[in-house]
Design goal:
- This protein is an all-beta fold.
- It is globular.
- The chain has a single domain, classed as Immunoglobulin-like (Sandwich), CATH 2.60.40.
- Strand 2 and strand 3 form a beta hairpin.
- The strands form 3 sheets. Strands 5-6-4-8 form a 4-stranded antiparallel β-sheet, with no helix packed on it. Strands 1-7 form a two-stranded antiparallel sheet. A two-stranded antiparallel ribbon has the order 2-3.
- The protein contains no helices and 8 strands.
- 20% of the residues are buried.
- Helices cover 0% and strands 43% of the residues.
Length: 89
């Protein structure tokens, strides 16, 4: 018997907190050095008014917000170099 497993991508997740209290509604912007089609749980492009920091990867891939428990998750990522920038207003 042969079993085939297909890995469509990797997941990067984390939790936003302040003094161990979860923070909801923090925008997390995913930057990368190459385009990545099919990223899940993520709105394409950059949020309004976002300016990437100097020396960050060149492409703004997508963004999302932390949930009520402070959790965020970027799914279906290919191997590569990424930066996640938090934005809270």
């Amino acid at each position: 018997m042969q079993i085939q497993i297909i890995v469509s991508g990797y997941e990067v997740s984390g939790k936003v907190s302040s003094d161990q209290t979860p923070v909801e509604g923090v925008t997390l912007v995913l930057l990368g050095s190459a385009a990545v089609p099919g990223i899940k749980n993520c709105q394409p492009g950059k949020p309004e008014g976002f300016i990437p920091p100097a020396n960050s990867p060149p492409l703004t891939l997508c963004h999302q917000s932390s949930d009520k428990t402070g959790i965020f998750r970027f799914s279906n990522l290919t191997p590569g170099k990424y930066s996640i920038i938090p934005v809270y207003k």
